[in-house]
Amino acid sequence: MIDLLFILFVVFFFTLIWKLRQQSEYAKTLIEQQCVKLDLQLLSVSRSSFNYKLGPNFLQASFTFEFSSDNENNYQGKLLLSGLLRPRFELPVYRSFDSTDQFH
Fold it and tell me: What is the model's pLDDT at position 104?
């Protein structure tokens, strides 16, 4: 009986690690797409927290990313994910320019 519980624990542990990795790769892809869409330079991505909840979307995570809009200042944004669904971006107000030659 203890062997069976140990095997179930190991399977659960590796499934959790696999899902965390899958979610991290998906978050990085979403953040890269959002930065390209908004014409931002992505500097770094990191997972800031996660929660385990029962249900189909059992991993809720928050990712922090740094980006730059003018190559001088960097800003921090947040991506909130519930499983692999419902991405929600939180971006601060950042400086943008119409042209790289002129400042407004």
Answer: 42
